[in-house]
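Make up an example, fold above all:
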Amino acid sequence: MKIVFCKNSFAGPISGADEIAVAYATELKAAGHAPRLLLVQPPSDRDPLAERLRAANVPLDTLASTAVSSSLATARRVAIGAMRTFPLISDLILSHSRRVLFNLVQQYHEACCEYLRRNRPDVVHVLTPDPGAVMLIRAAHATGIPVIYQEVGIPFHPPGFEEVYERFVSVLPLCDEVAVLSPSLGQEFQRVVMPFSSTKVLPLISFDHNGVTTRPPSEIVTFGFAARLEHLKGPIRLLEAFRIAGQTSSNMELKLAGEGSQRQEFIDTSRRLGLQQKCHLTGVYRTLEERGNFMSSVDVFVLPSLTEGTPNAIIEAMAHGKPIIANAVGGVPDLVTEDVGILVPPNDSHALAAAMSRMSLDAQMRQRMGAAARLKYEQLFTPEAVMPVLLDFYEQLIDRHSANARSNNKRYRRRVELVHPWVSPSYHAAVDVVHGGQTQ
C-alpha cells in the first residue's frame, strides 16, 4: 500500500502528532509497504524526526521552500515578541497570525494536487487540524484519493483554539473516514463535531527499545514529567503539589524533560520554595535512546495536564513499567485505569500531592502498578497490537474506492480476528492476500 501522511509542519520535540505519523510510517515501511510523509513546511536542519525517517528509508517531501519556512519562523518570533510586549492584545495578535498563516498555506493547493497526482497514493492520512489540514484534505478530495482525518486530541481544545476548529470542520465532509486514538475520544468527537455519526478508533504505536526498567534500590523516589513546559501541561501545578507532598514525604525528587514558556517561571518558583535541589530540568530528549534513558531514570511518571488526547509520554512510561499519576482529562482514563495508576481531578494540587505521597510511601504498589502498566502497553500500543488494526483500516477504505481495479487481481480472502481490546471481540476483518495468482 502507498500511504501519504500529511501535516503542515513538524511541531518540535515531544509533539504527539509528529510522533504518531513517524511511528505509523516507519512501521509500515518495515512491513513492506510504501509510506511517505508530506509536510507543507520543511523541517529544520537535523530535525530528529526527519533523521528517523531517513534511517527507516521513508521519503519526506515538502511543498514550501526552506526560505518560506525561515520567513514564517521569523514572523512567529516577531508575533511572540509582540504578544509579550502588548499582553492586553495578545489574543488579537495570535488570532491575526493564525489567519495569515492559514491563508498562506492555502496557496499550496495546486502544488499539493500535483504532488498527489504524481505519486498516486492509495490513501492520504491527515493528522491534527493544523494550518495545513484544510488545504491537504481539499487537495486529496480534488484528486479523487481517499482521505482520512485523524484527531489526536480533543476537538475545540485547548482553550483559544476554537477558531482553528471552526475553520477546519468545514472540510470534514470531504473525508472518507475520521479516526481517533481511543474510545473516550471517539465519544467526545461525536458529541461536539458533526456531521459524522461515527468514528473509528485507530490507536497510536509506541516503540519499546528498552523494555521494563527497574532502578537500583534507593530511598529517593523520582517522579518524572515529560512534556512542554507550558500552562496546559501543568508544570507549575506539579511543583506546587510536590511542595505539599514534601511536607509529609521527604524522600522525593522531580525530574522534568521538556522546554517551553514556563521554564523560567518553574526555575524561579522552585528557588522561591527552596526546592531547587530536588528539581532537575534535563531539557528535551531528541532521540529514542534519550527517551528510554529518561524513562529508565524515574520511578513514577506524572502528567497533570489540563487537556490531553492520548499522551505519548504516558504510553512511553507504561512501556518501561512505570506507574502513572495523571489528570482525568480527555483520553487519559482509557489508559490509566486503577490498576495502572492514580487519576486525579485537574487543577487540584492537593489531590495530586496526595497521590504522589501515596506512591512515594508504597514500593509494592509502585511495583504492582508498573507491571500492570507494562501489560496494558503490550495489549494496546505495540506494533504487534496496532498494525493489524491499521492495515485493516486502510484495506477497507481502499476496497470501497477501488473495488473494480482490485477485482482484476487474483486473490483469496482469509478471516483474521482483530484482538485489540478497543476493537469489538466479535469483529473479524477480511484481509486480502495475494497467493500465486489464484483465488482460493
